[in-house]
Amino acid sequence: MENLSFSPVKQILSSKMTFQALVLSLVCVVLGKAKVITQTEQRVVKVGDSVTLSCTLTEPKDIVQVTWQKDSVKSQSNIATYSKSTGLKIQKPYQDRMNFTSLMLNHTSITFWSTRVDDTGCYLCLFNTFPLGSFAGRSCLGVSGLNASIHYNISEGHLIATCSAVGFPEPTISWNNVFNYTPTQEKFTYDNGVVSITSELKVYDSQNISKEDLTCRVSNENEEMELPISMKKSRWLR
Description:
Immunoglobulin-like, 9-stranded mixed β-sheet, 4-stranded antiparallel β-sheet, 2 helices, 13% helix, disordered N terminus, disulfide bond, transmembrane helix, transmembrane, CD80_C2-set
């Protein structure tokens, strides 16, 4: 129980605070009734596949705009927006390979026509309403794929071979023969879970590698590949 001997000023402030608290409580009740339902919380597809992400706002609201964002640890960046007044807008990195496939304001869908490994990550669908603000849903997409390359340089009888791989799930790199040398390896994990690995092998004894080919082997849970360097065809070998 509050003290009834408040001064008039304190009573006015108390009344205002009580009214504001009541309004806030009503808003919270309204917000609590509406929720965003996502088609699925997590999707996993292969590189090049098409995939659709969908969200539905359960309660009818005055929706001004629908926004899709790619979520990351550092920030959220808009990838697509739609409203009846301004139409749809797709950001440049996603143009020609992603679009809205549902233009209903209370049910939104975007489709990636040809997914890439770097599309891996989580996406937010935002229903921007007036005057209650935004309602958000979250879907995560995993694009399973593997990209790899090998480069080498030969100088004064020494070989430096660099094998690189980018993929999801995390790739691994190995060599069919390291010729008693130890390769160095660097790994970087992006915010979306995609992993980049680089392995560098330095061989200083040309006689050791003139007898057989050198191959970089790259693999992850779903795929594997071999990237050979044909030592026998190299002109520097004598």
